[in-house]
Amino acid sequence: MQTEARVGVVVEGGGLNTTQSVVVEPQRQRQIGGAAQLISGGIAGAVSKTCTAPLARLTILFQLQGMHADVSKLEKASIWREASRIVREEGVRAFWKGNLVTIAHRLPYSSISFYAFERYKNMLQVILGAESQGSISADLCIRLLGGGLAGVTAASVTYPLDLVRTRLTAQKNVIYYKGICHALHTISKEEGFLGLYKGLGAALLGVGPNLAISFSVYDTARSYWQLQRPEDSTILVSLACGSLSGIASSTVAYPLDLVRRRMQLEGAGGRARVYRAGLVGTFRHIIRSEGWSGLYRGILPEYYKVVPSVGIVFMTYEKMKQVLSTIPEN
Fold first, then answer.
1. Binning pLDDT at 50, 70 and 90, where does residue 44 land?
2. CA pair distance 260, 249, nearest whole angstrom
3. Strand pairing report for 3-6 and 21-24
4. Which residues have C-beta within 8 Å of that of residue 205, sequence separation ≥ 6?
5. In this structure, how many other beta carbons lie within 10 angstroms of the beta carbon of residue 141?
6. Which helix (H) or strand (E) holds 10?
7. Which of 28, 63, 230, 295 could covalently link to 255 via disulfide, CB atoms 3.0 to 4.6 Å apart?
8. Alpha carbon 320 to chain centroid distance?
9. Given this model, what pLDDT does residue 263 score?
10. Which long-range contacts link 182-190 to residues 24+ away (Cβ below 8 Å)?
């Protein structure tokens, strides 16, 4: 009998991706409880984010290009050129700017997602009633809808930390925000409480498509692979299909993620506002001034971090489960 361990991977656009499953062969390992699973998932996410932080910062910097500059004078985005500039002007440690707030955001986000998903799932099962028991389509709908609602809840509660991360990461040579607490205080003081929620609409809109695409691509790819090559390692299948689903969901949801980042930076440090017409107006402004390709500015480093990010999450999660299972219950 095989044991299926679900890894709660939190995606950039918000949402709990409950579809990236790792099927492991039975081992002589004590089952760990929900709290230990939550700790394992949180640590796995933090390690993954830390390892891929340089690529994440490059993505954000590219996304923000053209916001306060003449687009016609911008050079073609080059990962090597921008990485060299960071090392030369800011130092190697600058690749991890904003990583502390990323980890601080990860832990409550994972906790809320984990708790909310179980609550929403139980509530939906009660609403749908007994006829949903044993129905594959009903179970799929419950998990998809429950995951989406959990993602929306977690994203809404922890959004200020996500906004602070963007502002800390976007800082280059001039340091306006000196840390997480200073940034939260300064933004609230200068832009009001609602300033901490700039771009929330784009974040919430990205939860559903991201989750749905990730779920469907992963499930379809894994089923096809196991049908064609049933002898392949299940860990390899999960890693490959998880990476493929990550690339697919990133491609579709990336424009919303870019718009979210730019809206988060509106008015930062007292700078003039660029986008004044909300979410739709921001899309129109970017397309008009930068073309359709402007919506995908910086997607290359985003692609590069998908495979190592998924792989590190899987490996760290399994290792943490092994470590925690050896700790006596009392």
1. confident
2. 16
3. antiparallel
4. 256, 279
5. 14
6. strand 9-10
7. 295
8. 21
9. 92
10. 184/160, 187/163, 190/267, 190/270
DSSP annotation of 30 reads P
pLDDT tens sequence across 99-129: 999 998 887 887 787 788 878 888 888 887 6
DSSP 8-state assignment for residue 77: P
**Which DSSP letter does residue 272 get?**
P
Helix ranges, the chain (H): 34-51, 53-63, 79-89, 99-128, 136-170, 180-191, 200-228, 234-264, 278-290, 299-325
For residue 18 the two structure tokens come to 């409950």
**Which of 94, 63, 62 shows the shortest CA–CA distance to 79?**
62
CA distance 158 to 129: 32
Distance CA 110, CA 127 (A): 25
* Rounded Cα distance, 37 and 31, in Å: 10
CA distance 152 to 146: 10
Strands 9-10 and 16-17: antiparallel
pLDDT digits (tens, 9 = 90+) for 235-249: 788 888 888 888 988
